[in-house]
């Protein structure tokens, strides 16, 4: 990498983010102005060159965003971009209130969307092909005369090119000749495949000489590849969204596009030192938009460098590069070994190392852990999604006895629905801790919730640390689904103490008994984390 | 499309599915043998040509799968494939127990994984490059001598080609010359981009003349595009997994690969009439593996053809093709206008017709059904996976009152674990039918099992038809997983009367109450099916 002091890249290649405009079209995303400012800060921190903030004038929220951005955003790497459309058919750009709003936004760069598909001009704009060209020329010239840098998004470009190549090229030329710095070829309906994008982009570049960009939607699952195909053909401007958010299936995902350009093309498209922030920033933006980060996202998902197969684990010990396409640290991610019955001793050793136990010196111990995992997984347990239960299992083998903070005498749950009432649940537990017998009853939404409350009540005098412990997720899976409700049940519980979170597993014939096992592990792990010593 | 009677395609192009083997490597997936059989049936129903079922001999579960598949799977389109590795270094294929297990599995096709990257041969296999070639030749010849069709997966092929092209090609030639029908180029670490895949595949084809396949992992977010790039270069065999399940980020997703081949390449890779089953089968497989179907999956996600109103709305009314890359009905999906219930009414009319109710003549009725479905889905119900509950809802609206064979006074379940005993469950129900009050108690593996037995006991004198009714599957999903065990619970129950099977759904704060709702629907539907008239 190069000079860390260069905060802004040169203009040779544009990483252009449109999370705040096109990304916000995703079903289920609804951003406040404060959300948009926070996301803009994350994107700037990541090091994109351009942040498209919205359509000033189109709705009050976007107008307010630009107003507040002017005073509240202190961008280090990025320039802010306002999005709008070419002027109205039959009017003059200088009189167009929508173009005036773009200028008033104060953004130094404007993206103008223009029609480039002949049928859309006729059916959606309801004007002539020639007037549409004039709208492009007039609007670009107007914004250039106001000292704005202009990019033109050619909507439906690829479909338009296939329907009427000459007209699509005429729109590109009109934008280019009027002073647009970049003409962006948009696959608005997302139906393209990389071979077509590459071929068409190469032809447009050769035919017009305009600087080209690409904007891909992911309807064929190829948006990242389509973006790279355009770059292969000479595009030097890529429009993406964080985590691929966008309408329908979504947009080209910023992170794998940047990941490929930096690590596969060895092209410097981010300021020095920013690539390792990628995983953190992807997750932070997911938090702001209130969507669970995709565990399986390329480069940045928690599973992106997770290995399960035993076959691989022994080779990974020899050389991790044999089994991963890049060093995960380059993008701020980490390798994880998953424990499952496909795993052998090698992956258990690696997992132990991750948790701070050196199993490599004691082959017997590692062998016992492998045997115990296989036996428990055969019984229906799964440890790859229950790190804390695995750590307790490992700890038990290392210490030769289970960590125990309390022991069970009995539990009972009652769920009932009487005439004319809604269903209610209560649970009673009888447990022993520090030589005392404790009995408590709890009520809850469902028998397991009631059981959790009862256990908490029983123990919190002796273990006040439990006040901070909270169950945050609860999953039930019925195994061997061929015997109806008589099947075996697996429960996964996620817990937190406000700082860390952990997962535990329980399996039994019965959902309540399985939950008890997972609850017991959750409490035990939480108390160990709080620094307490278990009873003997 | 062509002749609908052709259930098997010719051999010119292979759609090869490895959900059950490579897909099962995904973090969080843990399949039982029953799950694997169910998924195989769905894949066969979809029309893939090959289903890789697992590695017989490597673990007891896969061995059992092949044993049960031989008697329990009646495949219409697909052939079953066993996966294994080339023989041990220094041994003989004819003496290799692992190869013997492949033959014993009874699968007519075997995929053999072979090393094709020189460093992996040396570091992971710890043998010589020449011995590895001999292992390929000997293993393929052995399986051919046992009348098995053989495909060879060249692991780490693309990385190996870049490290040592001549050696990688030598492995392909060895497999081809020994009688492998297809040599599959695997991007095992998933770091490739389409341009590299296309170039290398073309060179391998020209240099060896072998029939080529491709197996892509999605670590760059390009697995679908990489698969298509290999096809562009002449590969005629694609290895994919349903919903892209697989290790780390995942594998090439079967559905967008098939979607592109059928709709963009106009290539017939599925038997006639199967493409419209794509959306349903994608969701059904997600249910079996107990993962929420991705809403944003290309072609099959519920958002894949969803349009936010605004700019596009009027144009979509003029011509929907202006704003969607294919007609969603081609893949069994539907366009959704997020502000309009028109699409909803149309699909409910279709569904009604399927169930024998003509709703097209009564727009009010169809509107009431749409409104009721929307309201219930908002509350957490899902009718996609609960046909019988939907049919009861429809029937209720048509008849103006619910079908009722019994009414509830109260139920109660008790689960308890006493000192030194295993957990037990009992349930008591008090119900009315034919003017009589019935009280019964049942015991079971879990509170819901106990509830089912109690209800059955209470009703079977009046409804002896219930003897044939059996619950065959039971699934629990916790909705809104941010409140721990206090969340809302959705239960899906599958029932059978020995002839047909049906699914019902219940939602409540509480797993037992939700189960009661689904049970009630299951019994009601079963009694209607038995030809009984409900009480007034």
From TrEMBL, chains A, B:
**Keyword Nucleotide-binding listed:** no
Q: Which reaction does it catalyse?
A: pyruvate + acetyl-CoA + H2O = (3R)-citramalate + CoA + H(+)
Which SUPFAM superfamilies does this entry report, sorted A to Z?
A: 2-isopropylmalate synthase LeuA, allosteric (dimerisation) domain, Aldolase
Q: Which CDD domains match?
A: DRE_TIM_LeuA3 (cd07941)
Q: Which EC number(s) are documented for this chain?
A: 2.3.3.21
Q: Which UniProt keywords apply?
A: Amino-acid biosynthesis, Branched-chain amino acid biosynthesis, Isoleucine biosynthesis, Transferase
Q: Origin, by domain of life?
A: Bacteria
Matches recorded under InterPro entries? 2-isopropylmalate_synth_dimer, AIPM/Hcit_synth_CS, Aldolase_TIM, Citramal_synthase, LeuA/HCS_post-cat, LeuA_allosteric_dom_sf, PYR_CT
In terms of PANTHER family, this protein maps to: (R)-CITRAMALATE SYNTHASE, ALPHA-IPM SYNTHASE/HOMOCITRATE SYNTHASE
Q: Which family does it belong to?
A: Belongs to the alpha-IPM synthase/homocitrate synthase family.
Indicate what this protein is called per its UniProt record. Answer: Citramalate synthase
Give the organism the record lists.
Kitasatospora viridis
